[in-house]
Amino acid sequence: MRKNWHSRRREYHHSAWCASIKTPQRLHRRMTAWNKVIATFTNRKMLIIFLLGISSGLPYLMTGATLGFWLEESSISLKNIGAMALVGGFYNLKFLWSPIVDIIKIPFLSKKLGRRRGWLVFTQIMLILSILGISATSPAENLTPTVIFALLIAFFSATQDIIIDAFRIDSLEEEEQAAGAVPYVYGYRIGLYIAGAVGLILSTQMSWHLVYALLSVPVLIGIIASLMAKEPDYAPKVAIKNTKDLIKHAVIDPFADFVKHKHWLILLLFIIAYKFPGAFLGGGLMSSFYLKMQFSKEEIALAVKTFGMIAGIAGLFIGGLLATKVGLVKALWIDIILQAVTNLLFIPLVYFQGNVWLLTIAVSMDSLAASMGTVVLVGFISGLCNKEYSATQYALLSSLAALGRTLLAANSGWIVEDIGWTNFYVLTFASALPAMLMMPFISSYMKNKENKSGKTIDEQAE
Predict the structure, then answer these.
(1) Which parts of 293-389 fold into alpha helices (H)?
(2) What are the residue ranges of helices labelled H in 172-294?
(3) CB-CB neighbours of 291 under 10 Å
(4) Which end of the chain is more exposed for a tag (fewer CB within 10 A), N or C?
(5) What pLDDT does 41 receive?
(6) Does residue 208 sit in helix, strand or coil?
(7) How far apart are CA 111 and CA 122, in angstroms?
């Protein structure tokens, strides 16, 4: 006999209520999972990685946006401020000397602390000396010494990044690797905030010379973390005996494997072009723009460095969620459009100078789109890498992705002086066109790859 509607309804609600009850077993499993999460992020290794993340983020803006403010106030031309972005070339080329870290020991320090920690302390000491060196320069009188010390900061910062990545990978178990990236990223963001917002606010109370001298102090956090850390077990994966072996291992073999991809050249061009809209805004150019648009340093610190950082962190989560929910192809399409459109939000600032609300909206949306694009592009690049050469191929491809940022940002000052700020932002909007034109091919390529492997590109990137 069929049950009447009311009986079925009561049974449904009863079963739903029973399912919602948290039994002791379910509570125990949930508590155990939370305990594992808490244990992961409160252990000594994760704390050290967090502190090293701060040390890694600190120097980056000292040769970028923060230096841009100093140069603008020193009446340096936009062309020269833009050209300073070339200093960041060390971050693009660091894969070339990364194997050196594996085969050369630092006298005394490596013997006392071990290979990884010896290199860490050495680069951190050199960073402090380089930052103190640039603090003693006067760009308004002679720009050359400032450029030299900026190059030294970028070189030792890029080298520190190589060692921190290696230290993190060597120190963590395989199941801890993903979790270990989280404290590093948050530490890195804090380092950026100190060098950006804190440095900018300090400059309203003291000279830039003293600001940079004070910013060298937090690098001690990295030294303390290095001394606290335990030297990880290390065994070179490849025997490198001379320069020829070094070049072969670092560049030739991984690249030779990558060119086996059909249409590999278009893939490389797409990786370079994908971040073009944001690349123009790199370096210290935007620092000059904010000051020229009549914003105070306090307003910039709040809108750009604080809200921009919050939006950037949100973009990391949204970008990952987007790629997971709609797939990489749609995520690439969505974000390249967002990166282009958000650049146009800076145009109203040219006509409504000093409007903090417009500044906050423009910077927040731009940071959101940029962070989303970073996550999506990382997923795309990861899916292209051969596992046999995953580390070196990823380093090569990610360096190419950042190449546009360095080269375009270096010329952005010249462009602004020639065509003005409004036309400049229109140009950055149009710069998304090359990647858009390649997107149909990229979509077809990814579908063909999925059909051959039986896995989606998202699964291959995991």
Answers:
(1) 297-300, 308-326, 328-343, 347-351, 356-384
(2) 177-193, 199-202, 208-215, 219-228, 243-247, 253-258, 264-273, 276-279, 285-292
(3) 16
(4) N
(5) 53
(6) helix
(7) 12
- Count of all residues that appear for the chain in the document: 462
Residue written as tokens 């999972």? 33
Looking up tokens 């860490």 gives 120
Residue with tokens 């490849």: 238
- Give CA–CA dist 342/335, Å, rounded: 10
CA distances from 411 to 66, 75, 120, 279, 290 (A): 19, 18, 34, 10, 18
Q: pLDDT by residue (tens digit) across 254-282?
A: 778 878 777 788 888 998 888 888 888 87
CA dihedral (281, 66, 132, 220) in degrees, to 10, reads -100
For helices 115-135 and 219-228, give the axis angle rounded to 10 degrees: 170
Tally Cβ neighbours within 10 Å of residue 59. Answer: 28
pLDDT averaged over every residue in the chain: 81
Residue 391 above 60 pLDDT?
no
Strand segments, DSSP code E, in 67-171 are: none
Distance CA 459, CA 462 (A): 5
Give the span between the Cα atoms of 456 and 262, in whole angstroms: 18
Q: What is the CATH number of domain 42-233?
A: 1.20.1250.20
pTM of the model: 0.74
For the domain made up of 240-462, give the CATH fold.
Answer: Growth Hormone; Chain: A; (1.20.1250)
Question: In the numeric block, which tokens belong to residue 241?
Answer: 């005996």
> How many CB atoms neighbour CB 84 within 10 A?
26
Residue 379: strand, helix, or coil: helix
The Cα 44–Cα 158 span in angstroms is 25
Looking at the chain, which residues constitute the CATH 1.20.1250.20 domain(s)? 42-233, 240-462
Portion of the chain with pLDDT greater than 90, in percent: 32
